[in-house]
Amino acid sequence: MASMSVAEMIGLFLNDNGKVNFEAFDGSSLGPKDAPLHIHVNNSRAVYYMVDHPNDLGLARAYLQGDISSPELIPGDPYVVFKELMALKPDLKRPNPADLARILSSVYSHGIRHPEPPSIEGPSRWRRRAEGLMPHSKAGDSATVSYHYDQSNEFYRLFLGSSMTYTCAVFDTPEDSLEDAEWRKLDLVLDKLNLKPGDRLLDIGCGWGSMEIRAAQRGIKVLGVTLAGEQVKWAQEWIKREGLEDLAEVRQMDYRDVPEGDFDGICSLGMMEHVGFKHYPSYFQEIFDKLKPNGRLLNHQITRVNSKTGKSAGEFIDRYIFPDGQLASPGEIETVIHDTGFEVVNQENLRQHYALTLHHWNKNLVAGWDRAVELMGEPKARLWGLYMAGCALNFELNNIQIHQFLCVRPDDTKMTDHYPLRPWWVKDSEVLPTQVEAPKA
């Protein structure tokens, strides 16, 4: 059997539509030289990665190592290239078994190899289980949250900006600054919770403390908890700098271990992705039990668009971004909320806002690229550019969404006249929040 070129292999998966040119290390090519997009397969390791994992994990490994590249691609923001690649979907085709056998025979004629994954790749699901890190146990959650968040705080500040808010911002117009949009989101959450000075708020998965700062500025007594030690250090320093220690506190603690109760409000922003679908009932019950009667919950999380697809993320996200992360549909989430005993007052989809947020983060990463590489190394800096640009595109394509659920714990009377008849958080005019500078790393 004659050996196949890399271009011939690619041609079995993709019709040549003139939109992309592939150049491979073996001298073969596919597509016109003047195509708007050029993809370079730089070495044989890229091919072996794809044979081992013919999915997003194989592609990610090759890209992060520099085995696949493109002159049109900006490492801190590969969005444009991703969008052009997504446009190739109608030209994809499925090779027949005989062609797949030819590809494998040709590749393995050069030797059977299984190249090591990039050093920044996390362990697989089965390896985490073998090490005793059961999904969504306290030990498992601590390990997986630390894996993602205990990076360099300076690195996160490069792309998150001064608000250090790692969740979807809220924009009035696409021209709004990231900082204004992030503070507006925090204000929206607090407005929906309708808390007044002296009320008590629990912030589950508090991140670097932006909600604690914002709530305390309103006179709200706020406790934030996170499993990430680096976030706790940053948040405590920020609170001290603003002179808000009498109102704001951040602890390194599992939300299940918070001893206090009778909170007037609880918020959870971008934390539910770590909980696991099977644990939703116990999660919402824990929150229900910690709220006063008539207390409110604002739950803000990324969602799937329907309940037909699986809950778990693909191999790339699982190994590099959110180990054991799961997403559910809005309907499934709301069902669990109702079954727990909450009344859902409002549900809002912020999908378009998250796409805009991610574009800002990518732009910031590009602006701070040299420092990002210095802090984290190029593969990890590439990883965050890849992850954020991919998410932006998926939000735009409505492959994923993000929802806020505003919920009330009923009192013993089950009456529903303890909140206004119309949405109280909607204002005739929005006043931009005062910007608060976070401490420098």
Automatic annotation (TrEMBL):
Question: Do you know which Gene3D superfamilies this protein is assigned to?
Answer: Vaccinia Virus protein VP39
Q: Which domain of life is it from?
A: Bacteria
> Do the record's keywords include Membrane?
no
Could you list this entry's UniProt keywords, alphabetically sorted: Lipid metabolism, Methyltransferase, S-adenosyl-L-methionine, Transferase
InterPro entries for the chain: CFA/CMAS, CMAS, SAM-dependent_MTases_sf
| GO terms assigned for molecular function | cyclopropane-fatty-acyl-phospholipid synthase activity
Q: What EC number(s) would the UniProt record show?
A: 2.1.1.79
GO biological process: one example = lipid biosynthetic process
Annotated active site residues, numbered on this chain, are C391
Q: What is an example of a Pfam family matching this protein?
A: CMAS
Q: Which PANTHER family match?
A: CYCLOPROPANE-FATTY-ACYL-PHOSPHOLIPID SYNTHASE
In which family does this protein belong, per the annotation?
Belongs to the CFA/CMAS family.
| Identification of the protein by name | Cyclopropane-fatty-acyl-phospholipid synthase
> What's the source species for this entry?
Bifidobacterium bohemicum DSM 22767
